[in-house]
Structures are given as structure tokens and as C-alpha cells.
Amino acid sequence: MPSVHDLPTLFSDLSGNWRAVAQRMFSVDHAIGQLQIPTRMEAWVLRQFGSLAAISEQRITRVTNRYTLESALFNPLRGQRPSSVAASDAELEQWIADELTHDMFANPLHETTADSFGRIYGEYCVSASNIAKYAGWHGLVIPNEPHPLRFNQAQIRDYLDVALRWVASAQAIDSNAQYPLITWNCLPKSGATIVHAHWQIAIANGLPYTRVEFWRRAIRAYHEETRRDYIDDLYRLHEQVGLDFSNRGVRSFIHLTPLRGREVVVVAAPAAAIAGSQAAQELADGIYCVLRALIDILGTRTFNLAIALPSPDQAEWQGFPVLVRIGDRGPALTTRGDLGAMELYGTGVIAADPFDVARAIKR
Known about the structure:
Elements lengths: L6 H6 L3 H10 E9 L7 H8 L2 H5 E9 L5 E4 L14 H11 L8 H4 L13 E5 L7 E7 L9 H21 L5 E8 L12 E6 L5 H17 L3 H11 L10 E4 L9 E5 L9 H19 L6 E6 L13 E7 L12 H6 L1 E3 L3 H9 L1
Parallel strand pairs: 3-12
Antiparallel strand pairs: 1-2, 2-3, 4-5, 5-7, 6-7, 6-10, 8-9, 9-11, 10-11
Helix pairs in contact: 2-9, 7-10
């Protein structure tokens, strides 16, 4: 079965057109890391990693997107490093139950602030205004179900619908609110300060949020250079090597340059940003399928999700898709971080092989 280390061969085996697309879009480099293992360490290395040879000579693959400049260093051995023992699901459930005994979002109508336009109500959730904002327009979608890992398809549809209606309400008041970003931090490891499930909505003015702007500029530069659709080529190239995961009519793929391990990208047509549309329901269904696959099949317990919406008025955003990125953040209750100086200021270091993720989800 292929792995990320086989990417050069997989790309070279593509048909001429797609081989050229792969070479234009991605740079793939290999390095070999060698080391000497002291005799006294051998028993520990065998217990921890299962092989002396695998540690003595390690293969590292670096994949870089030439247009977004996002890059990932892959070495699956990084996932076997010594770490604190991951909590069992029973321990996690007890911890969540204990946290929810002091649930700040249990009664959102009386214990959260409202936006100037009031609240947006859904069947399974309600909006609120974020009390400590990082944008002029910064709201919340608070589900009735507090447990962050318990949600069904209808609930995800409802959460997204309320978020989109919140965006529309803000933009109806403020013409400068141009660049919406909907996010979900699941459990504290992902950055959540409150365990009760909640989505955040922030709208930037002036300039878009940086990582979204990277993709917009990549789409424009690729089209100017090739007269081709960047997102379509990006998806189809992942599909060519078996990393696609499309469901409910929405295109998804396991990302070759993830920001965190097990990152899945979901792309939908711009029409999906229209509140109440069939396209929005299909997008919600695609997000639901990815999340449930990560949680139920791969054991994800804490994750980040971001939904970037195109600007409704800016000409340079015409044709920009709704872009969703979902990334696993590792064990939920560990005290050890998964982001260090290398990830923040250098390049992402990834232990999960995207081909392993694809096989697990498809199986």
C-alpha cells in the first residue's frame, strides 16, 4: 500500500497532464536521518519503536505546495515518541461530565450576551455575541446539546444555517464586514476555553484572515499562470493518488500539506454560502460525514474546524469556493502540546500519513 514516502513515484506514474499538474503544484523532497543507538538504549528503542533499523535510518518526506507555501514534514515515527498515556474514553467522558456541572452556556438566553441585531434561533441552537472579541463582529453558535462529540446530521445542518444567518444579519448592518470565518474548537486541546460545544463566527474587514488570503492568492496566481481552476486541480490531483473522500455531493480530500495531522479539506461551490440553500445543507452533510469519520473511525476526540466564506461583494473573490479545513489535535486530555516553535515559525511536522488516514476512512 502506498505511503506519503511514495509520492514521487505516484506522481510520476500519473498521465502526462496530471503529472505536469503535480510537478507544477507540489515540491516533494526526501531526507535520510541517521543516528547511532547506544547499547544501553537498544531495549528501550525496541519497546518504544519496535525496530532498531527503523530508528537508525529514518526517512523524512517534505511536501510543499508551491502556491500557498504550506508545507509538511512527514515522519510516522514521530507518532511513537514518548508521551503521557492518553486518557481512555471513559476517563474523557467523566472529565466532560465534571466540566459540564459548571456549564457557562447551559442557559444562553440569560447567561450570554446578544448581538446588536439580537439572536438567531435554530431548532437545535441559538446565537450569542462573544463577550471577549477578536473582531468587531464576533459571535457564537451555542448548541442545545452541550457534549462536543455528540451531534447528528440534522444538528450540523442547523448549526451551519444559524451561523450563515448570523453572517447575513451582520453584513446587512455593516457593509465593511466582508470576510467571514466560522470556526469550531472542540475541547481545550484545540483551544476551547469552554467545554460546552460552540461555534465561533468572526468577520474581518479591510483584509481577509491571513490563511484564507493565502489560498485566494494561490487560486488567482494559478489561474493567471495556467488558465486552469486551482481548486479543481488540487482536488483532482488528490483524487488521482487516492486521497479523495467525497460524500453527499461535496468534494473532500485528505490534505498533502496539512497544518495538523489527519487534516481533511472540504470544498463547495460559492452558492453554499447562501443561508437556507440546498447547497448549504449539502455542505453541512459533507462536514458531518468527515467529522463522524474522524471521530468514529479514527478515534479523533479533539479537533479544529474552519469554514471560510467568500466575500459577497469583492470582485476578486468571484468563484472562490466555500473552503473547510478540519484537523485532528491529538489526545484530548494530554498536558503535552502538539505545536512548537517549528510548527509556529517553521514548517508543520506531521506524524499521521495521509494515505493511512484515507485507507481508514474509506474502509
